[in-house]
Design goal:
The protein is built from 14 helices and no strands. By secondary structure, the chain is an all-alpha fold.
């Protein structure tokens, strides 16, 4: 009984402690106004990223645990995506807008205020339900859980290997070209505030529309075919960058491309998190999710590093052609699937 209470309150107050550290790091980074303080700003940025990851793992593990059936998982992901994108709109577009019309220090203070409100809501809420914690979870230690999950993960079970390949393929399709687009658009003459309105303002609604499309698609076709269709659609959509390159600065085309790419990003985001949630649902959900999350972060770093290297050493058209080729090949990996990908909702 006492162990269960510790588990329930531990997660709640861990989130609050982590958010307190994030607020402190935001405040310290907001004081770095000189270019000579770049190293200090970088250190506080690492602190925010590290403790933000801890918070994400706890909350995502909680979400996966409370959404047992796949249909609940999809509906929960759609709601989770709404909250995530609302927060993203606030801290990205909102921060850009406040810094453009005010200052970065003011933007940091507004973000700190928003996190404080979230902490207040968590503080007055009840602890995590007792039924989330099984007897196995309550009796096992951190190291025992880690050892068990790593043993399962690196055993001759083919499903984790296929999952890792699919996660890398997803990042290649989603990030290789899209993460370099801001550099290309800056070269086309767009300003920060113009990209904010197009990519973050319009893009927020587009992502939610994409999540809704993915939710409906999963009710009709298996996850395997939904991911394959998304990969092909994203590859074709990347070709619209050719028009941007040919026409130069054109606000109408910028808004169209933002709508299309963000909608497809919303589709892919929901599909891949349904896939991850199904795998992570186990007696040690948070431990399994932390391993997958670490691999996912490594994928993103590898893909964006390769993309920046290719972008910096080739012409944009060569970069675009290579990106579309890599994207098409990555989409083909979804043809090889496990049982979890072969059912509809």
């Amino acid at each position: 009984m006492s162990t269960s209470i510790i588990h329930r309150y531990f997660f709640k107050y861990t989130v609050l402690a982590v958010q307190t550290i994030i607020i402190f790091a935001f405040y310290q980074s907001s004081q770095c106004m000189s270019p000579l303080q770049f190293e200090v700003l970088w250190i506080w940025g690492c602190v925010i990223a590290c403790f933000g990851a801890i918070q994400d793992i706890i909350l995502e593990g909680y979400r996966i645990n409370v959404s047992k059936p796949q249909i609940s998982s999809t509906q929960n992901l759609l709601g989770n995506q709404t909250g995530f994108r609302l927060a993203g709109l606030f801290v990205s577009s909102g921060a850009l807008g406040i810094s453009h019309y005010g200052s970065w220090k003011l933007a940091s203070y507004v973000i700190i205020g928003a996190i404080s409100i979230a902490m207040l809501l968590i503080g007055v809420n009840s602890p995590f339900p007792r039924e989330l914690f099984t007897k196995e979870q309550e009796s096992s230690s951190y190291w025992a859980s880690l050892k068990k999950e790593l043993k399962d993960f690196f055993s001759w079970n083919r499903f984790p290997l296929v999952l890792l390949i699919h996660l890398f393929a997803y990042k290649m399709i989603d990030a290789f070209i899209r993460w370099m687009l801001p550099l290309f658009l800056y070269g086309q003459g767009y300003s920060n505030i113009e990209l904010m309105y197009a990519d973050k303002g319009l893009g927020w609604g587009s992502v939610l529309l994409g999540g809704f499309v993915a939710h409906k698609a999963l009710q009709r076709i298996p996850l395997k075919w939904a991911l394959l269709a998304w990969g092909i659609a994203q590859t074709i959509a990347d070709s619209t960058c050719l028009f941007q390159w040919y026409l130069g600065k054109h606000m109408g085309l910028l808004f169209f491309n933002s709508f299309l790419h963000q909608m497809l990003s919303g589709v892919g985001n929901l599909l891949i998190w349904v896939y991850i949630s199904d795998y992570c649902r186990s007696s040690h959900t948070m431990m399994r999710y932390s391993i997958i999350s670490a691999w996912f972060t490594l994928d993103r770093l590898c893909v964006t590093w390769c993309a920046s290297l290719v972008y910096g050493r080739t012409h944009f058209l060569t970069f675009l052609a290579l990106g579309m080729l890599f994207s098409a090949l990555s989409a083909m990996t979804f043809l090889y699937s496990q049982k979890v990908m072969n059912r509809t909702l």
